[in-house]
Amino acid sequence: MVKTLIVPGLFGSGEGHWQRHWLDDHPEAVFVEQGDWNRPALAAWRSALEAEIERHPSVDIVAHSLGCLLVAGLARRPIAERIRSVLLVAPCDLEETERLHPGAIDFGIMPRQRLSFPSLVVGSLNDPYMRFDRLQALCERWGSRLIDLGRAGHINIASGFGRWPGGYDLLKVLNGMAKGDRPIAGPAMQVRQPTLANRL
């Protein structure tokens, strides 16, 4: 059985965040805990994530912000063979994150290697943590399909994302890609329909 892992970013995903609603709506999903949400260190966070992946024969990963970079960094590690697919929502740019939160993170450099597992990236035109042109370039390097939600901020509570059923739909699409179904057409697809971008 494929287990879904929920991987937050800096400060975790607090009450009301769409990742918390995901756990409520899918009790079989697993929240990946970290020892220190306020001062992320790459080695410690990666160790916790890999330990959780090791508990399952196969996983889908749903990550947000800094958690996306954590997941992308696993692409060339042995544990990657257990990853069926990844949904990466609002990846952050380390330079922008350091500017917004000076001294808070110790995460090395941006992972830019091609991902070794099927991936969808969900981005926004006005995300303060990642310019859209840089996100497009990063997706090209990762070999990821990019879903454009329009002016959706950082796709978090502050930008109006509580329960987000559209994410569940996107994971279904991603699972189809992992099974070899026809992928979403185009390098960057705009998704503005209520069924795929439902915000509360």
From TrEMBL:
A GO term for molecular function: hydrolase activity
SUPFAM superfamilies the UniProt entry points to: alpha/beta-Hydrolases (SSF53474)
The keyword Hydrolase is annotated on this UniProt entry: yes
Top-rank lineage group of the source organism: Bacteria
Keywords: Hydrolase, Plasmid
Gene3D superfamilies, sorted: alpha/beta hydrolase (3.40.50.1820)
Hydrolase recorded as keyword: yes
The protein, known as: Esterase of the alpha/beta hydrolase fold
Natural source organism: Sinorhizobium fredii (strain HH103)
Lineage: Bacteria, Pseudomonadati, Pseudomonadota, Alphaproteobacteria, Hyphomicrobiales
